[in-house]
């Protein structure tokens, strides 16, 4: 509650006689009332406005945090080393998954495999994962972190399976990779919450988690369909549906 000190009231006689009658009884018609707000008994007081935010005072502590060394980021704020490292780890995950999908694309695009629908699907999946990595890199730079790319493992080049066939085996592998990516994203979200980084948590939630759930659902349906059709002619029909964007309703 804002308390105001009572004003000091002075009565000044404004009669034409020119005599100073301050403090004496005078008629109301000849009185000028002068009010001055007093604070703490001081006559040299400033007005009480109720302002609780003084930007020029509070910004002083922020000015002390602005780096002067050229190698340090000027944009970095409330961004911990742990969050920075977790983002770099997720960038590596996205690039590795993209690399595996690109190997799958190359396999199904062979002339002696010739499943163009699966080749198209895995090529698009590879590009999507690379886009995710680049989006994380952009966010890392935005927050003042440093992108540190790590090694990418060499993926498989053969995806045929004696019992399951190549289409089902590759799609089950893709489902496992999507679930693994989701686990890594959830870990990144945990790191954000641990460090009270609400901006990073919001970024992960809005840009990745919902999309990841949708991808897991879609590929799960593809696995179920391929298990039904077996390794024969049904795979070709499934591939044609993927090629024409009509698989798994």
Brief overview, please?
Helix content is 55%, strand content 5%.
Number of strands: 2
Spatial strand arrangement across the major sheet: 1-2
Report the uncertain regions. Answer: 21-28, 31-38
Strand content: under 5%
Q: What is the helix fraction of residues, given as a range?
A: 40-55%
Mean pLDDT: 84
Shape: elongated
Major β-sheet profile: 2 strands, antiparallel
- The radius of gyration is 36 Å
Protein structure class: mainly alpha
User: Which series of helices and strands comes N to C?
Assistant: EEHHHHHH
User: Count the helices. How many?
Assistant: 6
The rounded distance between the terminal residues' Cα atoms is 62 Å
Description:
The protein is mainly alpha-helical and about 250 residues long. The protein is about 55% helix and about 5% strand. The protein contains six helices and two strands. Strands 1-2 form a two-stranded antiparallel sheet. Helix 2 packs antiparallel against helix 3, helix 3 crosses helix 6 (about 235-245) and helix 4 (about 165-195) runs antiparallel to helix 5 (about 200-230). The two termini are about 60 Å apart. About 25% of the residues are buried. Residues about 20-30 and about 30-40 have low confidence and may be disordered.
Task: Show the helix and strand layout.
Layout: E1 8-13, E2 31-36, H1 55-63, H2 81-108, H3 116-142, H4 166-194, H5 198-229, H6 233-243
Helix pairs in contact: 2-3, 2-4, 3-6, 4-5
């Amino acid at each position: 509650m804002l308390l105001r000190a009572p004003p000091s009231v002075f009565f000044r006689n404004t009669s034409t006689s020119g005599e100073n009658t301050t403090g004496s009884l005078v008629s109301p018609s000849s009185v000028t009332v002068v009010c001055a707000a007093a604070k703490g008994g001081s006559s040299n007081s400033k007005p009480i406005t109720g302002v609780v935010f003084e930007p020029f005072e509070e910004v002083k502590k922020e000015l002390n945090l602005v780096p002067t060394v050229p190698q340090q980021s000027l944009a970095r704020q409330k961004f911990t080393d742990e969050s920075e490292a977790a983002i770099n780890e997720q960038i590596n995950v996205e690039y590795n998954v993209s690399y595996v999908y690109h190997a799958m694309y190359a396999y199904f695009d062979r002339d002696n495999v010739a499943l163009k629908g699966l080749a198209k699907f895995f090529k698009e999946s590879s590009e999507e994962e690379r886009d995710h990595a680049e989006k994380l890199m952009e966010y890392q730079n935005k927050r003042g972190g440093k992108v540190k790319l790590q090694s990418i493992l060499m993926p498989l080049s053969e995806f045929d399976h004696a019992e399951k066939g190549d289409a089902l085996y590759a799609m089950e592998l893709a489902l496992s990779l999507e679930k693994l990516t989701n686990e890594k994203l959830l870990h990144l979200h945990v790191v954000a919450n641990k460090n009270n980084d609400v901006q990073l948590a919001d970024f992960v939630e809005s840009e990745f988690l919902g999309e990841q759930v949708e991808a897991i659902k879609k590929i799960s349906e593809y696995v179920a369909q391929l298990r039904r059709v077996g390794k024969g002619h049904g795979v070709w029909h499934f591939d044609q549906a993927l090629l024409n964007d009509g698989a798994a309703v």
